[in-house]
Design goal:
The protein is mainly α. Helices cover 37% and strands 0% of the residues.
Length: 104
Amino acid sequence: MEVFTEYRGPAEFFHGRDEVINPFVRALVHYRRINRGTTFLIKGPPGSGKTALLYELSEHAKTNGYEVKGSLNAPDFHDPARMAAKLGVPYKPRKSRGWSFGLE
């Protein structure tokens, strides 16, 4: 069963959070320059402004040349094919490497 969360969208009056936004923007620029990526975790108690912050961060990402995709759910992170489909990108499974030994 997937968890239902109502999307509240951007905050009507968003301000502050420079201590989060500025390092995020610097990371965007850095990782674009070296052609690599990273992962950010946003956590906090209910009502602390996570959704509004994510909206603001996505706007900064778009401004810095990143494409921002829609939301993912927890099960998407456990299934690469499902995640690729949600993100609208092709998925090609990696070839399995290893040895196979037959026992008689």
